[in-house]
Amino acid sequence: MPIEKSHDRVILHHPKGASTEILFFGATIISWKAVDRKGSTASERLFVSSKAVLDGSKAVRGGIPVVFPCFGAPEHPEHAKLSQHGFARNEIWSFDKVVMDNEAGVSVKLTLNPGPSITALYSKSFQLAYVVTLAEHQLSTDLHVLNPSNDESLEFQALLHTYIRAPANDVSIAPLLGKSYIDKTEKTLDGKPALKQETRSGVDVRTFTDSVYEDAPQKVEVTWPEGGLETRLAGFINVVVWNPQAEAGSKMGDMEEGGWERFVCVEPGYVRGFKKLEPGESWTGQQVLSLL
Ligand code: BG6
C-alpha cells in the first residue's frame, strides 16, 4: 500500500524504497527516508530528537514543523495573542485527499481552517493547504495560503522549519556569500538583532547560529564530507539557518543530549515583513528537498 493512513498520521511509500511520515498534529513531517543515488538502502534524512513530544501537547522538536502565521515572537498586532512561531504547528490538520499516486510520486494534501482553539486567539480568516509529495530521491512540501475573506486583507509570515539530519560540525551551506542577514544570536546596543553581511562562501554552524537571510537564493546546498542535500525554494524570500549548539540546545527540555551535533535547520520562509493577501488571493511557498 503506497499510502497508509491511521488516526493520527499518514505514511507514504514510494515503489523505489523512499517513505515519509506526516503527523496530523501540526502537519509535521517526522520522517523522510530515501535511497541515495548509489542505490543503497533507504536511510533517514530528517532529525527528530529522541526527547521530542509526539502526543500533541507540544510542537515536535524535529522533522518539518510548519510555522504560520508568525515567525518567532509575534510582531504584528493581529498576532499579539499567539505564541512563538504561531499555531499551525500545534493544531490538528485534516487529511483532505490523495493528490497523486503513481511511479513519479506519491502525494497527499492536508488542510487547516480556523477552529475554536484558533479563533480564541486569532480573528482573521484563512485556509491552509499543505501538499507533500514523495519521489524517489526527493520530498516536496508546498504550503498554500488562501485569504477567503470578502473584505479584509491577510498579513502573515510562514516558514518550513526543516531539521536536516547531518553532522552539524561538518556542514557547509551555500551560496549565501554577500547576502544580508539578521544574526539573532547577537544584539546591538538598542537591543535589536545585529544586521550583517555574509562573508563566508560556505556557511558553517560550529557555533550557536540563528541567522535570517534576506533575498534567499532559489537553491541552497547543504553538504558535508559524506553527503548532501539541496533545497529549492519558490515563493519564500528568506532562508533561516539555525543550530543551537550546546549553548542553547542544552537548555531545551525536548532536545536529546548532543542532538545539536546531528542536524542543521535550513528553513525556507517568508519572515521578514509580512506577506499580504487581498481578499480572494492566495500564495504558495514551496520547498523541494533532493539528495545530491
Ligand atoms: C528558529 C528561530 O527558526 O527556530 C530560532 O530562528 C528559534 O530563534 C528556533 O530558537 C527554534 O524555535 P522553537 O520555538 O521550535 O524552540
Structural description of this entry:
The protein is mainly β and 292 residues long. It has helices at residues 116-119, 245-249; strands at 3-5, 9-13, 19-23, 29-34, 43-44, 66-67, 94-101, 106-112, 127-134, 138-146, 154-160, 163-165, 172-174, 180-187, 193-197, 209-213, 219-224, 227-234, 238-243, 263-277, 282-291. The strands form three sheets. Strands 6, 11, 12, 14, 15, 16, 19 and 20 form an eight-stranded antiparallel beta sheet that branches. It has an eight-stranded antiparallel beta sheet with strand order 7-8-9-10-21-18-17-13, with no helix packed on it. It is built from two helices and 21 strands. The protein has a single domain, classed as Beta-galactosidase, Chain A, domain 5. It binds 6-O-phosphono-beta-D-glucopyranose. The site of 6-O-phosphono-beta-D-glucopyranose has 10 residues, from strand 19.
End-to-end C-alpha gap? 28 Å
Largest sheet geometry: 8 strands, antiparallel
The Cα radius of gyration reads 18 Å
The CATH topology annotation reads as: Beta-galactosidase, Chain A, domain 5
pLDDT < 50 stretches: none
Organism: Artomyces pyxidatus
Protein name: Galactose mutarotase-like protein
